[in-house]
């Protein structure tokens, strides 16, 4: 999916700062009162409300949603303690990922200090933002990776080809057809990409733009509909005002953060090293490209040494080659591969040029991240209470995830189990005409059902034991008060979106896993 609709909710939701005004006894910036205690872990009011607010929708359909959400949080903390008892917290996998999260959280403190604290909005700015928030837009677009292809599409449109026909032609392309449309507002469009928004201001309803260059290609945009919200009641106007302030703050902060990082880059003058890039490209090609792509794109998989040519990915000494250097920092291929493995930077694989360009971008992003991280740690921002508390939350989430995967790995579904289950339940596996499907047609479905049934069974047994071994205390009175308030008020939160390619990293906030959807059924 392309960059103008890339703010998608991830598995763990988004980082959130709970800043709405709270009534009575809850009127504090950080409510650290304990809702539940599970062994060494504490779930606080903040933990529960933030996790619930961005949690999966299935819980909110339950009769007592907040209490249900808390129950699943307790389950995950019990499993985290079991993972720690098994020593999972001492593994490199765990420690590397927890440090990466701490690193992002620490850099986020630098963002608060150097960027957010400098944002000032005037009433004029806010009123202009409200006006843009009231303008709704429904867009569709054609996408082309090259300028030539974009100009060809645009010429076809200018010569009479209906936009709908050109749009439908791209349905069979490898890009996401459903992702090439968007309903938004002028304000949100500015937040997501200012340059893109500016180029659409002169495009009217049912008009089509000339090709617009983006970071990954070219866009030809049709504004299907453009309308403005009518005069709003006072409470809706106030909500729109708060929304405008939040978005304008983000827009101004993004500009300031770019300035801050550019100053840092100028001081450090980073440089990408060709030999290191070749090694990185070989590793990433082996991980993510087909043999045919590697051959067609002429990606070298070996390097000439004094002892003759050697395969890059089988020669550990190549890992020590620098991939990027700055005035005070040297990053090797090994540094990059570790960073990439944890961050999972998304590479483009539709052409050699885009593949190479996205690797180059990721190397620059790593250098930027490391420079920001070094500055943040030098200031001791990792010791702030907010960072320490968030890291503790993530510790539990990571340990729970490792424990869940351990249960997954312990399950083996044999052919005889699949055949026996199918024989007993074959009446349930029918096609649209009501005919029973053969095992060959539903084998994966049968295996999936067997796997989840066994997984749920093992989880129940494990949790039953853990609840007997680990003390769990719940403040039922406090949970009831919070549940009443959540149902009655649905307080808003300010959301800081995670942007993998952004100037400053944004840390996703952990909420409960989707696996609990069917657990109680």
Q: Biggest β-sheet, characterized?
A: 4 strands, antiparallel
Task: Estimate the global geometry from the Cα principal axes.
Answer: globular
Count of individual helical segments:
18
* Percent range of helical residues: 40-55%
Radius of gyration: 26 Å
Overall mean pLDDT: 85
Q: Say how many strands there are.
A: 14
- Distance N terminus to C terminus? 34 Å
The assigned structural class equals alpha+beta
- Spans with pLDDT under 50 lasting ≥5 residues? 1-28, 488-501
Order of adjacent strands in the largest pleated sheet = 5-4-7-6
Beta-strand percent range: 5-15%
Structure overview:
27% of the residues are buried. This protein has helices spanning 45-53, 57-60, 65-85, 92-114, 123-133, 147-158, 163-169, 186-192, 194-200, 234-268, 274-288, 291-296, 333-343, 352-378, 385-409, 415-425, 439-469, 476-489, and strands at residues 15-17, 34-38, 41-44, 135-144, 181-185, 212-214, 217-228, 271-272, 302-305, 308-311, 322-325, 330-332, 472-474, 494-496. The protein has 18 helices and 14 strands. It has 521 residues and is α+β, with helices and mostly antiparallel strands. The longest helix is centred in the middle third of the chain and has 35 residues, at 234-268. Helix 3 (65-85) packs across helix 15 (385-409) and helix 16 crosses helix 17. It has a 4-stranded antiparallel beta sheet with strand order 5-4-7-6, sandwiched between helices. A 3-stranded antiparallel beta sheet has the order 3-2-13. The two termini are 34 Å apart. Residues 1-28 and 488-501 have low confidence and may be disordered. Strand 6 (212-214) and strand 7 form a beta hairpin.
């Amino acid at each position: 999916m392309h960059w103008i609709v890339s703010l998608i909710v991830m598995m763990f939701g988004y980082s959130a700062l709970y800043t709405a005004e709270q009534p009575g006894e809850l009127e504090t910036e950080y409510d650290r009162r304990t809702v539940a205690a599970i062994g060494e872990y504490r779930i606080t009011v903040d933990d529960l409300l933030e996790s619930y607010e961005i949690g999966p929708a299935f819980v909110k359909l339950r009769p007592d949603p907040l209490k249900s959400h808390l129950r699943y949080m307790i389950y995950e903390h019990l499993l985290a303690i079991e993972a720690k008892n098994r020593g999972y917290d001492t593994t490199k996998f765990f420690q590397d990922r927890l440090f990466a999260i701490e690193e992002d959280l620490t850099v986020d403190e630098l963002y608060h200090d150097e960027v957010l604290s400098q944002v000032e909005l005037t009433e004029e700015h806010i009123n202009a933002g409200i006006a843009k928030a009231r303008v709704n837009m429904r867009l569709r677009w054609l996408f082309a990776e090259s300028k030539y292809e974009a100009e060809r599409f645009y010429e076809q449109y200018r010569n009479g080809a209906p936009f709908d026909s050109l749009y439908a032609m791209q349905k069979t392309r490898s890009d996401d057809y459903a992702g090439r449309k968007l309903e938004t507002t002028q304000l949100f469009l500015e937040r997501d990409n200012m340059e893109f928004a500016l180029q659409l201001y002169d495009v009217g309803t049912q008009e089509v733009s000339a090709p617009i260059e983006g970071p990954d290609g070219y866009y030809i945009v049709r504004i299907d509909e453009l309308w403005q919200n009518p005069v709003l009641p006072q409470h809706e106007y106030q909500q729109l005002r708060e929304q405008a302030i939040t978005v304008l703050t983000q827009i101004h902060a993004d500009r300031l953060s770019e300035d801050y990082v550019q100053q840092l880059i100028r001081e450090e003058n980073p440089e990408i090293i060709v030999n290191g890039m070749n090694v990185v490209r070989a590793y990433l090609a082996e991980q993510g490209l087909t043999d045919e792509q590697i051959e067609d794109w002429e990606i070298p998989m070996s390097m000439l040494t004094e002892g003759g040519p050697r395969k890059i990915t089988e020669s550990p000494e190549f890992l020590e080659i620098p991939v990027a250097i700055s005035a005070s920092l040297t990053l090797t291929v090994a540094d990059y591969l570790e960073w990439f493995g944890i961050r999972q930077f998304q590479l483009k694989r539709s052409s050699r040029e885009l593949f190479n360009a996205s690797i180059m971008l990721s190397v620059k992003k790593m250098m930027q991240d490391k420079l920001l991280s070094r500055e943040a740690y030098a200031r001791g921002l990792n010791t702030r209470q907010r960072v320490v508390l968030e890291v503790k939350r993530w510790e539990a989430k990571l340990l729970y995830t490792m424990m869940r995967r351990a249960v997954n790995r312990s399950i083996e579904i044999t052919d005889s189990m699949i055949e026996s289950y199918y024989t007993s339940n074959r009446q349930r596996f029918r096609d649209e005409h009501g005919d029973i499907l053969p095992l060959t047609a539903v084998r994966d479905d049968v295996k999936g059902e067997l796997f989840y049934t066994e997984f749920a069974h093992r989880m129940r047994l494990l949790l039953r034991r853990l609840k007997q071994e680990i003390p769990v205390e719940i403040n039922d009175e406090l949970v009831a008060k919070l549940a009443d308030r959540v149902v009655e008020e649905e307080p808003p939160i300010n959301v800081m979106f995670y942007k993998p390619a952004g100037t400053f990293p944004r840390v996703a906030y952990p909420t409960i896993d989707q696996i609990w959807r069917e657990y109680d059924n």
